[in-house]
Design goal:
Aminopeptidase; 8-stranded mixed β-sheet; 183 residues; alpha+beta; globular
Length: 183
């Protein structure tokens, strides 16, 4: 019998799926999606090509008690969708702030999955943040729409390094002020 490590993250309900902590059994779908160049290029943290063992390391990092971010899978199994639709994560920052990041598998692009995940995460506010930030590459207008549709406001331009591209990429930064404990 295989038993996954239990993390101290809540399961968060969305309309068509749940946001749940990663499991080791997610490795196959995560590797397939993270290995897709389109997904990797839309994030700053996924290298392309995806090196062997990267997916397992990603999962293992997410399961550690001491970690730098909390990661949830968008799990649509309860609605007849895939068990892994994408990933959303929060990185705690100083002064009751968090940064939200996400990616969705290309098969589910333009389906509202990302918007639903971000809205659910903001509403749940599991870090009890007073402020959430989001940063998207300027050539990713779809992700910019996701965060603005979730109530984030444009804050300014910046830059971030993309592992998949191997260069620094212009970004847009967004902010959403929250009442602690609420979205």
């Amino acid at each position: 019998m295989i038993i996954d490590q239990i993390t101290n993250q809540p399961v968060i309900d969305a309309d068509r799926f749940i946001l749940r902590p990663l499991r080791k059994s997610d490795a196959g779908l995560l590797e397939m999606y993270m290995g897709d160049e389109r997904v990797a290029r839309a994030t700053g943290t996924i290298p392309h090509p995806l090196p062997p063992g990267a997916t397992e390391a990603f999962i293992n990092r997410s399961l550690k008690t001491e970690r730098t971010e909390d990661i949830w899978v968008m799990d649509g199994a309860m609605s007849g969708l895939a068990e892994v639709l994408g990933v959303v994560w929060l990185r705690p920052m100083e002064r009751d702030q968090s940064e939200i990041n996400f990616w969705v598998a290309p098969a589910f692009w333009n389906s509202g999955i990302a918007s639903e995940a971000v809205r659910a995460m903001v509403a749940a506010n599991p870090h009890n943040a007073r402020t959430m930030f989001a940063e998207v590459f300027q050539d990713n207008a779809a992700s910019a729409r996701v965060v603005t549709n979730a109530g984030f406001e444009y804050l300014g331009d910046a830059e971030a390094f993309s592992l998949a591209r191997g260069v620094t990429v212009p970004t847009w930064t967004y902010v959403k002020r929250l009442q602690a404990g609420k979205g």
